[in-house]
Amino acid sequence: MKFFILLTIFFLSNTILYSQDFRYGKVSAEELNEKVHPLYPEANAAILYREVKTSFNYSEDDGFTILTEVFERIKIYNSEGFSWGNKEIELYKGSAKKEEIKYEKAEIYNLNASGKVISEKMRRDGKFTEEKSRYKDVVKLVMPNVKEGSVIEYSYSVLSPFINNIDDYILQFSIPANVINVTFLAPEYLHYKIHQTGWININLTQTKSPRTINYNYTSAVGQRFGGTIPVTSLEALTFDEYIYTISQKNIPALDKEPLSGNIDRYRSAVSFELESTKFPRSPITYYSLTWEDVVKQIYNSSSFGQELNKSNYYKNDLDALPLTGKTPAEKINIIYDFVQKKMVWNNI
User: Fold this and answer.
1) Is residue 242 within 8 Å of 170, Cβ to Cβ?
2) What 3-state DSSP class applies to 260?
3) Which residues of 123-140 are buried (b: 16+ CB within 10 A; e: fewer)?
4) 3-state DSSP assignment of residue 127
């Protein structure tokens, strides 16, 4: 009996993958007619296909920057899955640099009365940006006419100057995912450590391939008026590019359980942490932090450590509290109750 069930699941999963065309705009009537997920019938929505590719561009002005391209196809099964008709893209920003969306397109697919596939692009007012914090903006994409049975596609790219801050590659969501493919291409000058979380066996492979870029190299040669003359020349630089690929299929949803705490701690994901850089004609620079370094950064942070060094919070208010003649424990409770009523979360 167990063998029959496993054989059935294997047959279904391979049938699902074989019948789909994972190219933008190639949504089929079969996908739109699907009433429930073949493997997880309780799902409100599902990721039919998700592809993420991260590569590094090079320019003389900016050095290496990160280009992340995302394509995602989502199936809506019922009204409880309508929220998956909206997409949020987080963009980090610093004092002088920030991440930018280079392009985005989104489309929703439904069946008309005669069973023909019809599509509708995201409207102009379907995209807007919100400031989430000092360091992060959120671009929201909202699709029109989301219905039970709809299929939605998103395709966008993000350009980032922060080579030491790469978002985790999430492989498990609150809905099942049929296929997730990730490609991460890093030049040999940037050395990343790989971390994995979650219980799913992640299929990660590593290869390398030569790559050539042109760059201007300035050297000080010759003599003039008792000094050296800088000379700039265009050079071709060939280096190894390390290619990491992840291919996952039929990933179950990660449901939040009671008393589970932060569910992201259990989510299957892969992260790349910049450990060091070693550029031609330059010394090695280390970025990976020890726990001692982390502690120092936290206590030097203006939003944490420097706040702890401040004093006289609520001094005038505390002077008015009935603390006279109270034991230390009673004072603590009175002050705690007072501060608790004064605190308001700003959602950041």
Assistant:
1) no
2) coil
3) eeeebeeeeeeeeebebe
4) strand
Tokens coding 284: 């090695």
* Structural tokens at position 72: 């995602």
Length of the chain: 348
* C-beta separation of 104 from 52 below 8 A: no
> Which residues are within 8 A (CB) of 240 and not within 5 positions of it... i.e. 6 or more apart?
187, 188, 208, 209, 210, 211
Angle subtended at Cα 185 by Cα 181 and Cα 136, rounded to the nearest 5 degrees:
80
**Angle (nearest 5°) at CA 120 between 118 and 122:** 160
Strand 204-224 and strand 127-133: the pairing is: unpaired
Which three-class secondary structure state does DSSP give residue 215? Answer: strand
Q: Which two tokens stand for residue 322?
A: 């009935």
Q: Which helix (H) or strand (E) holds 337?
A: helix 328-342
Distances (CA, A) of 227 to 218, 230, 345: 16, 10, 61
The answer to whether the beta carbons of residues 68 and 186 sit under 8 Å apart is no
Structure tokens at 41: 């019938």
Q: What is the mean pLDDT of each run of 10 residues along the chain (348 residues)?
A: 45 51 94 96 97 94 93 97 94 92 94 94 92 91 94 97 94 96 97 94 95 77 63 82 97 84 88 92 84 83 79 79 94 92 78
Tally of CB atoms within 10 A around 234: 8
Contact 215, 295 (CB under 8 A): no
